Amino acid sequence: MTMTHPGLPDPWLWLALAVMSFSLLWVLFFTPKKLSTHSFLNVEKIPLIGWLARLFVASPWPLLLLKLISVALFLTVIAAGLFGTPMAERNLATTLTWTVWWSGLIVTVFFLGSAWCAVCPWDTIASWLVKRRLWRRADASSSLGLKFPKAWRNVWPALAMFVGLTWLELGVGVTTNPYATAVLSLVMIVLATIYMAVFESKVFCKHVCPVGRTVGFYAQLSMVELRPRLQKTCDSCKTMECYHGTKEIEPCPTNLVMGTLTQSTYCTSCSACTMSCPHDNVGWRVRSPAAEAIQHARPHWDEAWFMLGLLGLTTFHGITMMEFWEQGLSWFGQLIGDSGQLIWSFSVGMALVFIAPILLYSLLIKLTQILLPVKVGFKQLFAKLAFISLPLAFVYHIAHNLNHLVRESRGFSDVLINPLGKDTLPLSSAELHMRHMNPLMSEQFLYGLQAGLMAFGFWLALQILQKRSLEIFSDAAAWRAVYQVPGIIFITIITAINLWLLVQPMIMRM
Amino acid sequence: MIAMRSIWLCVLFCFFTVTVQAHHVLGRPSYSLGEDSNTPPSMQVETQIGDFYVTYMAFPAFPKPNEQGRVNLYASRIDNGSPFDGKVTFKVRDDSWFSKTTEILGVQDIDEVVYRQGFIFKNDGDYIITAEFESGGEPYIIDFPLRIGEPSAVGPIGITVAILIFVLLMVNILQRKRLFGLKAKRAREENNS
């Protein structure tokens, strides 16, 4: 029996399309201005939540408590996966990992940035094993401290891991297999520990971890950032405790210098800088979610590929939950003589969906290059404008995940009470129907959120395109709206596909 | 269409024994309440091979040693949905790397649209049930996993712990050697000066 979630209804679709059309006209007919510095608000000055932010910035203990909770839950996931029932919907390993955490994680990035990395259980366990300290700075002999090979000091390993994770998730079906989920969790512990024991800093977090890098890139669109309170203080700082650490506090695990930090991609929110700064000059602040991707983030070739890969794989997630995907897979499987789980057919389909937006983007970048009156290298333009893919991936990812989170996490309390699912039966049709009919929030509110997100992502991508293309010109007067047209075509095609996917009924995962 | 001497379908999920309730993906086992009654649950695998859609069901879903169990097999043509009506041979083998012994469980004729095969296993373990039939001159050989008793959890944990201990120990030894070497070098330099 296959049950599907209803797609976005027409009125919401038309509303989203109307807002998008307005954004498009705005971008085409209004000349942008050169950017100045963006405004922000110190989180610690916000009533009610200010004291909480202060608590986490000033002391290691609240974060340590959260790490302990995170590790306890992670170990429970492993135990449930290995010793519990193989029925995915009755086992904590699959429900917590894939329905609650993996779906909810992307939503939290918008509000909390890369806060997940600060409590990441596999990194915490690896740190405890290698450094043998709960939070204080470990002595240098705890790790071999080798330099990470120069050729790997980029996000290619993380992109490869992300492709692999998606293949395991959707192709092999780890999301519906508690045992495999537990094994995957153990693999993450092993990898994090090996990298930490062999290499300096936290190269696994910075270059390899697919979750960390996904969170890191999306954090560019977060409404919060960890930054210096006063830039002047950092400019005059000679000791740079944020980078070097202190006797008690670890240095920045991803080698960031707070005074020159312009993008949150590699920040793990670990609070080492907030605690080590002798001037108490580092804190959380609220900002415009557009600021970093529009203005501050610096373009890199590998990062551009990661962002585009994220876009392709996010859309791919949606495609695999459509009925036409399974029919197409079956047809293709028959054509090539594939059988069983149709892994070959799946892999070919995945490769096509992954590469299609990158090819389209490359083609349109070439067209932009031809249109521009100034000479800009292809790679440079490719990297510079790739930021437009970030909001497109982010909003569709959240909109898609909201379906899982809101419609499939009913009954999670039962799994929390019985994490191993001992003596339980599979979901009956009646139970499944009840879950299906009782989402966590009103359906109309969910549709509103999804439509709003899609319109917001479209607008944001257009803003990024406009401001980043303007940056190419030293004289703003030389800029013309027509230079954006290839970029607008890309944004429109991707948004149209993602919106169409949201309108279709989506097959329930469990 | 498929010009292969034999078609092997190995749905071997030593690590990936997947359960799906609502989202039936080809080749992945799913669990649902029994075909015969509301309990006990059954395990089901839907897959395609050559010209056929094949559905395999095991009752109960989580069989135990010395407990009567049954396999149901449905095979229908992909193009017109008509059921296969020849004979199906069911075999079983131990799902381990070095096991080569295969035992015939039985040869079954179609009963309505289903092939039924009973089984009793004496020991816990991972087994492969093989269904064999011939259609259009092509042999069809389909393997399905069957777990008897509780799966072993010690394997993944044991391997993880062993790797972690090995890595941490090696790093510790290398670090000690390196520090000792540095100390010796420093001492030599001091003596020379």
Most strands sheet of chain A: 3 strands, antiparallel
Q: Biggest interface pair, residues each? A: A-B, 52 and 51 residues
| Helix percentage of chain B | 10-25%
Q: What's the total count of β strands of chain A?
A: 5
Quote the average pLDDT of chain B.
79
Q: What is the first-to-last residue Cα distance of chain B? A: 84 Å
Secondary-structure element series of chain B: EEEEEEEEEEH
Helix content of chain A: 55-70%
Task: Give the mean pLDDT of chain A.
Answer: 91
Order of helices and strands of chain A: EHEHHHHHHHHHEHHHEHHHHHHHHHHE
Q: Radius of gyration of chain A in whole Å, from Cα? A: 23 Å
Determine the structural class of chain A based on helices, strands and strand pairing: mainly alpha
Strand order of the largest sheet of chain B: 1-10-9-6-7
> Which spans of chain B have pLDDT < 50 for at least 5 consecutive residues?
1-24
β-sheet strand percentage of chain B? 35-45%
- State Rg of chain B: 26 Å
The tally of beta strands of chain B, per DSSP, is 10
Annotation field: number of helices of chain B: 1
Question: Which secondary-structure class do the elements of chain B indicate?
Answer: alpha+beta
What does this structure look like?
The complex is a heterodimer of chains A (510) and B (193). Chain A has 23 helices and five strands. Chain A has helices at 10-29, 50-58, 61-83, 92-112, 115-118, 121-131, 156-172, 178-198, 203-208, 210-218, 231-235, 241-244, 272-276, 291-296, 301-320, 323-336, 343-371, 378-385, 389-408, 412-417, 429-437, 443-471, 485-503, and strands at residues 4-5, 40-42, 224-228, 282-287, 506-507. In chain A, strands 2-4-3 form a three-stranded antiparallel sheet. The mean pLDDT of chain A is 91. Chain B is of the alpha+beta class and 193 residues long. Helix content of chain B is 20%, strand content 39%. In chain B, strand 3 (41-49) and strand 4 form a beta hairpin. Chain B is elongated. At the A-B interface, helix 8 and helix 16 of A face strand 1, strand 2, strand 3 and helix 1 of B.
